[in-house]
Amino acid sequence: MNEELKPIDPEMVACEVCLKEIPLSEAKSGEASDYVLHYCSLECYAKWKEQSKE
After folding, report:
1. What domain of life is recorded for the organism (predicted)?
2. How far apart are CA 40 and CA 26, in angstroms?
């Protein structure tokens, strides 16, 4: 009965701006009715927001 416990890898997502892989549980998300975008930091979110204005 010595079952080896293996850690579960967290689900990963890519930052919408820099494409850095981040755990879904740590991602900040911007939600809309048809899609969800993930950002690794507030800096990446600000870059995305500036790009979307142009």
Report:
1. Bacteria
2. 8
Architecture label for domain 12-53: Roll (2.30)
Residue 18 has what DSSP assignment?
A: T
What single letter denotes the amino acid at residue 51? Q
CB 39 within 8 A of CB 15: yes
CA of residue 35 relative to chain centroid, distance: 13
Six token digits for residue 18: 């820099």
Domain residue limits, the chain: 12-53
> Which tens digit of pLDDT belongs to each residue from 1-54?
577 877 788 888 888 889 999 888 776 666 654 567 888 888 988 998 898 777
